[in-house]
Amino acid sequence: ILPQTVRNIIIQMIFAALLRRSPLIQMGPAKDAVVVGRVFRVVRDDLYIDFGGKFHCVCQRPAGADGLQPGSRVRLRLQDMELTARFLGASTDTTLLEAQAVLLGPLDGREHQIRD
Amino acid sequence: MAGSRLERFGTVFTRVRDLIRSGVIKPKEKPLWYDVYKTFPPMRAPLHVEPVTSPSAKKQETVPEIFYSEDKIRTGFYEQYGRGLRALDLSKSNFVSTCQRFVDKYRELKSHGMLDKSSLFEETGKALLKEGIILRRRGAPPVLAESRDPVLDLKLIDMLAEQQSAGTDTTKTTEDKNS
């Protein structure tokens, strides 16, 4: 029999416990959720942003935001975690392997609104 | 039958036995386990049994939804306060969002057992405000609209006052005219 402290540590490492407390579950439905993303690729005006979801999203660079380079962190409003649709005559959905989000702007550093 | 490699035809032992009997496998090439299996056969012959595929069994194969008890609290929170002001960082596994703090506080207050269900919600909101977490109610007008409203209100009041004074003047004039 393992001591309680070791058991607590093991329980914390079980996937079911990790999932229950994960920010993905805390978020709930993806529609209109505000998340933090990180630009990992830039192709001219297209920003490929990874926010920790199943897929990344691609957003247009807003006018005057030339400071957004690979590595910069941004705020996004998620619309869809995965863009899928079933086309006429298909037996399964077709997926774009992309999420859809609206780019709100760079992460100002004012995310810490909790005054402790 | 003899040369079938498909594991659904009989057992591996019967297949090898028939291959030896027909002469495809020479006695020299007999597998090592053959004599052992022959002397000590297993309790259940490893025949392939088709799993029962009745329509009721198939319906249960759909993936069940993952619901937790704290989801009720979360739905209440999102309905009242909308999406949080604080952006969620999905890449951090130990991230605690505003919603999660609300849930933890709610459960803490519930465990104290002093409040009933209807007031628990408001009490958690107040408790979080005390800790310094700003909760903006959903449907609350944004700051710009709030600054505009008092101006509009003043104009309305002025207009009403003007109308009232104008109304009294006209009645007076009409009375004068009549008399």
From TrEMBL, chain A:
InterPro entries: Ribosomal_bS1m
Pfam families referenced in this protein's UniProt entry, alphabetically: MRP-S35
Protein name in the entry: Mitochondrial ribosomal protein S28
GO CC terms in record: mitochondrial small ribosomal subunit
Top-level taxon: Eukaryota
From TrEMBL, chain B:
Name of this chain's protein: Small ribosomal subunit protein mS23
Localization (cell): Mitochondrion
Keywords from the named record: Mitochondrion, Ribonucleoprotein, Ribosomal protein
InterPro entries: mS23_dom, mS23_dom_met, Ribosomal_mS23_met
Alphabetical GO biological process terms: translation
Naturally occurring in which organism (per UniProt): Haplochromis burtoni
Family annotation (Pfam families): MRP-S23 (PF10484)
Main localization category: mitochondrion
